[in-house]
Amino acid sequence: MAPSASDEPAPMHLPVISKASTISASVLHGPRDLRLERRSIEDPDVGELQIAVKTTGICGSDVSYYKKFANGDLCACMPLSLGHESSGTVVAIGPHVSGFSVGDRVALEVGIPCGQCGICRQGRYNLCKKMRFRSSAKSVPHFQGCLQERINHPANWCHKLPDNISFDAAALLEPLSVAIHAVNRASPTPGSTALVLGAGTVGLLTAAMARQAGCAAVTITDVDQGRVDYAVAKGFATHGYVVPRPLHTSSSSSSISSGSMSGTSTPLDGVMTPASTLSFRSQLDSARMLATEMLSLTNSSTPLLVEDEDDGVDITFECTGKEICMHTALYATRPGGKVIMVGMGTPIQTLPMSVAHLREIDILGIFRYANTYPTGIRLLRAQALGSPSGFTLPSLDDMVTHRFKGLENARGAFELASRTVDDDGNLVLKVVIEA
Amino acid sequence: MAPSASDEPAPMHLPVISKASTISASVLHGPRDLRLERRSIEDPDVGELQIAVKTTGICGSDVSYYKKFANGDLCACMPLSLGHESSGTVVAIGPHVSGFSVGDRVALEVGIPCGQCGICRQGRYNLCKKMRFRSSAKSVPHFQGCLQERINHPANWCHKLPDNISFDAAALLEPLSVAIHAVNRASPTPGSTALVLGAGTVGLLTAAMARQAGCAAVTITDVDQGRVDYAVAKGFATHGYVVPRPLHTSSSSSSISSGSMSGTSTPLDGVMTPASTLSFRSQLDSARMLATEMLSLTNSSTPLLVEDEDDGVDITFECTGKEICMHTALYATRPGGKVIMVGMGTPIQTLPMSVAHLREIDILGIFRYANTYPTGIRLLRAQALGSPSGFTLPSLDDMVTHRFKGLENARGAFELASRTVDDDGNLVLKVVIEA
Amino acid sequence: MAPSASDEPAPMHLPVISKASTISASVLHGPRDLRLERRSIEDPDVGELQIAVKTTGICGSDVSYYKKFANGDLCACMPLSLGHESSGTVVAIGPHVSGFSVGDRVALEVGIPCGQCGICRQGRYNLCKKMRFRSSAKSVPHFQGCLQERINHPANWCHKLPDNISFDAAALLEPLSVAIHAVNRASPTPGSTALVLGAGTVGLLTAAMARQAGCAAVTITDVDQGRVDYAVAKGFATHGYVVPRPLHTSSSSSSISSGSMSGTSTPLDGVMTPASTLSFRSQLDSARMLATEMLSLTNSSTPLLVEDEDDGVDITFECTGKEICMHTALYATRPGGKVIMVGMGTPIQTLPMSVAHLREIDILGIFRYANTYPTGIRLLRAQALGSPSGFTLPSLDDMVTHRFKGLENARGAFELASRTVDDDGNLVLKVVIEA
Amino acid sequence: MAPSASDEPAPMHLPVISKASTISASVLHGPRDLRLERRSIEDPDVGELQIAVKTTGICGSDVSYYKKFANGDLCACMPLSLGHESSGTVVAIGPHVSGFSVGDRVALEVGIPCGQCGICRQGRYNLCKKMRFRSSAKSVPHFQGCLQERINHPANWCHKLPDNISFDAAALLEPLSVAIHAVNRASPTPGSTALVLGAGTVGLLTAAMARQAGCAAVTITDVDQGRVDYAVAKGFATHGYVVPRPLHTSSSSSSISSGSMSGTSTPLDGVMTPASTLSFRSQLDSARMLATEMLSLTNSSTPLLVEDEDDGVDITFECTGKEICMHTALYATRPGGKVIMVGMGTPIQTLPMSVAHLREIDILGIFRYANTYPTGIRLLRAQALGSPSGFTLPSLDDMVTHRFKGLENARGAFELASRTVDDDGNLVLKVVIEA
């Protein structure tokens, strides 16, 4: 399968019966070297749709590529269009495609697995070794991202949208998919308790999905008061806990650039003085105390009735990728509970593994998502029904705090997406670029 | 362990240092032979609490005993106090009990398993062969029900209540437990679709729990328009479907007396002419058409986006115990889905088993509940927190449509509980007796 | 995707650069109207291999088509090659295929799902609505079976064989797949007890897989003494029980023709006098007694140590498709256990559903299989390692009791496959046709 | 419940109608301060049996207490009888016990949970906070171990033995329980592949249970050639890999004293030069290379057929408790697989968590066991049936390599149990003390 949009400059003299046309694309050539270019695009191939991209959300991994031309261990080795949280409209239909019409509104699932290996056939296609994922530097040549005017995409990985789901919300189906997958892996029983560490986009959506899955109490934590307040005010979580920043930390503004693949979170590490000046044991003690405080907060507002409740929450979703947060996660979870590693971050971590081992706390990582888009669409569609007694997700549209129009303004979007507040002091949650 | 309240008449002359006192009890001696009696009650034994019963809900099985002195195959063989949906206040504390104070408000879990057999140790204590369940004729001597002034009950099976849970709601924790157990067995993933057949107490609560567990669309059906309307208006379900009654059926008013153990449901069988005059094949065809109609109702209001959706719902909860409803359930469920048998009813059923077999629809029965009271309490406690964005159960207090004060008025409660509307035409959902 | 071998007669005048060649095929045109024909076969298309079929096992569904030109509700409407338990050798390789060489030995997985619908992506591709399955009349035009000299088959559904797996054993990977899927759905914990009803090919293999999965005691039952003896002697099961035939039954020889899709089993119905002369209640009583006898057999040889053991086995695999066997299955399974419906048979069954409901016995059907071939190959490969302490499946080669050479002798194979003993009184288990 | 045997010296003048008698006990008073003492024992209380202990196996945790009067973080604070792998004979029966006779042979499950807390009721009683476990210093006063002539033990936690299970094998039911629990948590599907790190008692039994559960290939590794050879020769594993020791390591003999609760394993750390002289990155590289070598060993003997197989095993059981082995475990496991932490060891570990996170490798710890004794007894009982085709565990009796008679010889047993070979160069696996 050829990349849907080539890197070659558009040919000068198009033949009369052209099969290609010209589009503009936002292309990253190196750290902060973002260029608006013209690319040629072929007609959609067998099984493909051509999509005019409408909205693309900026993710932490995009910001990382933008700043470093790399994301964690992955270094880009050729020009790369970013953006993988996208929705758009069908503008052309390739051969052998059925079920779509020009004008259909769709959300794009941008990771294309092989569909035939053992793990694909078993339904865990997110783990397919041959996965090609738009805007990631993993496969070479890179599978180009969605910050292009139009792209050709396999119809099988385009999800039709009902009228009540906006393009913004549809773009947010991507981070919502991470949250859905995280909660599916956790499989809480109704009435469970959950803790979410990190109140970035993915943390917020994970908290909301934990509530959707029936968790009776969902506590969200972050060092950023604004995000915690937002989470509770908008119903993403039932309780919020602001992790106190120490006086002399300067990590607050830069920390977010570490970004995870699946949404940025303000890390909690501000709470710690540098590891080198603090013994690891006292680090663990801090984490344990923090866990106790978080639990007592929840329990104080809801008097303790079941004796086991002070042992910890049923499930902790770690959405920051920070080692110190994994410590907190392990101490805050009850025996027999689960810690879900959502936020990608420190690849090598020093952890009190006996806490998990002796208490049989399962540690489950999640990598992207599988089979989540139909679920997400169903949940967003249900919002519109307006049932009298809740049970629907908070508004995703509301999470879009900043909007940039036109690919030519992508640079501003990336710069803003790396901050937690804008120049006016307003919360920055999700920045989107509209085509 | 001796029964908590004996059947013997109270002794005339109590000794000076008495360990027993006298209580009033509502005792059934035969079909509709309900008597208000005086019984003696011992002080609470080791590990027991003495509970002054405040509220007891009337269940379908209670109505069955009241009318027939039997419930399904179980025939009472001695006087039997009914009532197993109860809450009350601790009035005395036996030896070796800790964690309780006089005045504590509690919900009673009235089934006492042995705690030591293989299945108890594996956490499925509801299946314990030695289970003793109050108000049931299964164990002999019968384990007396809660329609008594006070009872002694193992402290381990009394669940403390937070202030925000009323005695009414606490009594309803029993049918809610059935619903919680049903949904735990179904373990829907968030965004699933569900169908609930029967809108009695258990059907309503099961629908609400399906929503709590994250189901995006929950359709409830019943022959009774009032119940269906109630379910949708109050947010128990997202969609309602009233099964049309044929012209010449007379089963409407009496049908409810068939009652299930765990809540009564208006059966759907009114829709069918007598089986003897109708070939079984056409019965099945009717069930299939009914299933299609129910599905299309849901799908019409929510345009079909995922191609598989017209194959059926993910999970069907059958809460009527009727064979015809099992047919509908099997036809209405998608390949790979689940049918949960909740409502007890026809012991021998003729079913299109190949529909389940060839489509791998799991058929899972539920018998009472295990480990559900802490969950139920946590969910009801969460209601009080008043989060802005829903995700809480509908009010259980609101389900108590009729209230009788004093055990001496139990007869009226049983008579009313066997009807679906009262003399004023108001919906009868849950009838409770207050001590 | 075009059928791999067309029904059209071979063209008379082949062009010079032919893309088609001529093969012989065994084709069924009506009940017992089996013809040896010449068909043309194209070169393998994109993604396809051309396989010279070596061994094909005859399944109960094949016998059903052979006798009735129909299998259950499915009626053939055009000429149909039978056979779906096949192995062969790669003789040509289509474009865009990698990982295969001419001469590779392969087992054929003959059901081709769409790979893109929701249920395929979730890993349950056996339930795909667009599934095309060779030798079945379900899809029209029928997807032709393997009793052809050569076929073109998607490389993705050809499984390479190590040297130690014979073509016979490889053909038996198909019924073994049914057994693997059945046991995967049952997911027994090591040390479980199992009962297998029916000792045909699928019953035997299911018993062996139950042992493979760690079941400590596996009892197999059949009306045929020879099969039961074989099962125990060869280690498929640990215990055998021969269901006594009543004196005046004549159903013994014909019963097998009812066949299931996935292997024939001698039904137990011989034990019953006609249902019409026997009340259903007494039928159930018979089933219950039979269940008790089967359990006591196992328990007598292994003195009862765990008190719950007399409550039934953990898992019952029903491999006959007979209603009376489902009765036995339900009564023979412990509370909290599982009944797996393996053998297809009576579409509409009258069952004591309360036995399952009140004891929470899960009823799980299986339809074919998914993700089983790699497992089966791994298990057969392990046989060859010859570890000192067992844990390997019984020999599958040994199950091939009769062998016919040449497609021209297919008729004899079908006739014999419908019997349980041959003319010499020898057991008939698996009949294969060698190309 | 009072401790079953008190620490007080026996009273001098017993009353005529004595309820106590005098026994000998092996009691540890400090590091290597093991004394043979006289203790008094009461008659068995309500619900208790008095057991004459016949065989007790020495576990790694026993050796740790013997040497350091502590086990990991747990320090003994009063005299402590060791031993928790025990079998014996019923010599007296307390009130309210049924189902046992004097002379019954039993295995002792020595951890007594509360039975009433949430986690007990959910079937995970091994995680009960109130658990009292014999020979452990965790509860105070310590719950005395089994190296006593007789002990009183709750009948509910005594498991009757069939004749074919020896006292030796019955003592080994305790480490077998750890293995059963580990495999239950892993829940391999039949045909899975497994890797077991560490070939001590628990490693060997875990490997055997992995085979019992249907794993087709089980590779065991250790630095000790003798143990690896034993494992393969006796059928505990299908493949063995001896981890090469570097030339200049001196950790071989002392390393075992670190012992885990549930069986000792020769750690693999000999392979590494001190961490301080080696960068952590190169440590990880070594672990990755080691993992690759282990996998290629298995795959070379069994030619690679399924393309995913070189991605790692389905399940790795880490039985050494060493950090370096956790590294190997993570690298050796396939995407979507599981690492089970069995061996307790280094409480704080530095791990390449992204390897687990990005590949969704679940990390599951196990702590002791729950609901395993009936399973173990069923599996050992099945050994005696002598089915022709394997599927039974290797002999547990054979694992008892050394035997000491009389509690007065306990010291010799502890000294030997801390070694991997005896003075004659014979393998030391399980050392038992016979009463």
UniProtKB/TrEMBL annotation, chains A, B, C, D:
Record key words, sorted: Metal-binding, NAD, Oxidoreductase, Zinc
Statement: the UniProt record of this protein carries the keyword NAD = yes
* GO molecular function, a single term: L-iditol 2-dehydrogenase (NAD+) activity
Stretch list, region Disordered:
248-268
Task: Look up the record and name the cofactor or cofactors this protein needs.
Answer: Zn(2+)
- State which pathway it belongs to: Carbohydrate degradation
Domain Enoyl reductase (ER), residue spans: 30-429
Might you name a Gene Ontology BP term for this protein?
sorbitol catabolic process
Matches recorded under InterPro entries: ADH-like_C, ADH-like_N, ADH_Zn_CS, ER, GroES-like_sf, NAD(P)-bd_dom_sf, SDH-like
Q: Where is the composition biased (Low complexity)?
A: 249-266
Q: SUPFAM superfamilies recorded for this chain?
A: GroES-like, NAD(P)-binding Rossmann-fold domains
Gene3D superfamilies under this entry? Medium-chain alcohol dehydrogenases, catalytic domain, NAD(P)-binding Rossmann-like Domain
What's the protein here called? Chaperonin 10-like protein
